[in-house]
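protien #1 (seq + structre)
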Amino acid sequence: MGGKIIVVGSSTGGTEALKLFLSGMPEHAPAILIAQHMPELFTKSFAERLNNLCKMRVAEAEQHQDIVAGRVYLAPGHSHLLLERFAGKFRTVLSQEAPVNRHRPSVDVLFRAAAKCLGADAIGVMLTGMGKDGAAAMLEMKRAGAYNFAQDEASCVVFGMPREAIALGAVDEVVPLPKMAERVLARLAIGRQL
């Protein structure tokens, strides 16, 4: 399979946090899948706005897209975003299943799929947000071999989701938002090659 995939969860304050994080990622960074709590009317235009700001190509995720480096897949506001292995590659899966933790898209759903499909090839990033969506599944990721980051309290708009993940022992590094892209790249050890 080769190559890592980054999965990101965010909620309140996440639109600004994602802008900062993604703008620090180089053009050929590993694929990034994002579950941001956001009404469906806004996800497409948000993806377009990010695409204009970032070196990576950002778009709202569609059903059964091949997941490739240099691309960011943002969960549409009406669907959970998962991934699956298919014909020797990974591809996106959209699901209209019921909300999880009162959210669709839910971070738990994305992170659980990453734990199951990717194991140690996943890197988890928990950004600012209210509540606990994603915390339990981030622990599943860690147990499956993933390396996980959480945004620190000082740089969060709401230190809910990161706090819950940290409390469960799901997080390997707690990082201020302005340093998040740099730390993820250091973990990937691709900074030197770009």
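ok now protien #2
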Amino acid sequence: MHEEIEELKKAIEASPENVYLRMLLVRKMRPFDQYLQEAEQQLETVMELEKQNREARELLVEIFFRQGKNSAAIVLGEDLLEQTDVSPGTKLILSKAYYAEEDFTKSRDLYEEVLMINPSMTDQQLDHAFRLGSAYDEDDENDYLLEKPKVTFQDVGGLDDIKREIDLKIIKPLEHADLYAAYGKKVGGGILLYGPPGCGKTFLARATAGEINAGFINVTLNDILDMWVGNSEKQLNAIFEEARDNAPCVLFFDEIDALGAKRSDLRQSAGKNVINQFLSELDGVEASNDGVLVIGATNVPWHLDAAFRRPGRFDRVIFVPPPDLDNRAEILKIKLADKPKEHIDYHKLAKLTPHYSGADLEAVIDIAIESVLETAMQTGAPQPLTTDLLKNAISKHRSTTIDWFTTAKNYAVFANQSGQYDAISEYLKKHKDL
């Protein structure tokens, strides 16, 4: 086979505009990972010669995906979907690329399309993620979802303004439910936390439940989505019923954009049905949500369906920014509290980490720990972390929030007619370096 590949390369050198030869070469290279980059170059040349060569474009989607170039595979795949009838195999690859990029809604929708065309084209990873077994059993108990968090706002480093807002709008009404009832006001509702990844949205939601000794249900995508028609809606209803039965209860949906994506972006009616069910549960159409606080968290609020932000749903929207200077120092103190250390200048380290998220600071500490572990293992004694060690670790880690603000800035400038991104605009005004 490798000899044939070399012979075809020589033939192409003699006839560089021969598309047939180039495609034949790609087909020969396709099974071998070591030829993927060369295959990519050949396909790009074919597309220059024949821009609408469908086979070349579909093969290039596969080649991109196999090299881990998921974004490139998605861009080319989406263009194909808009312009032509795409093979189930390419749709499956595109579904897997979406999944790798954590765009679970589009991944699931495309996988459904593939199985409708050819039920035998299953994928183990996608099945594990989306095919959650047979039809939902209404007698199943879901108590395993419920927990009582021990963390409170004292355990949350910084975010004082946000904690104050949650206390005023959410916690106080739950603590004084009788007073609210006297005025005919329901206790509970929905809040949406949004901001860069790693800034404590999940921990903040858990601490909110801990503040009022309420139940806490952390809902993941796998708790909801099911390949079988109607099951996702049933499972969503079951989780809301669990929260209602255990009120006061905080129901937390992380990456809520995966469940509540804009319906105009969805290709399948199944995804739209889940969103409609979600909206119905938020409205308490068939059961009261009194005492149920629904918290959603997202890094991409611009992908959330506008219907979720109507009054009575996620009508309280809170921007969770990266921690400021004092809060970064506080977070470092909390995260280093139980670790061997000496002479840590927290303020100095905080000044060196502008725009770092809590997750970024934890990554810095991990890098510093790794730098002393080898010595510690040789001596058999823990080596203390120092300011210099942490400074060196900071030089090896870049803030992950900067890319987020690059995207968010565009929405704040060009898509902020309703004022929903005013908090981002205010933050950017105060931080001219972003």
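Residues 98 and 360 are 25 Å apart (CA to CA).
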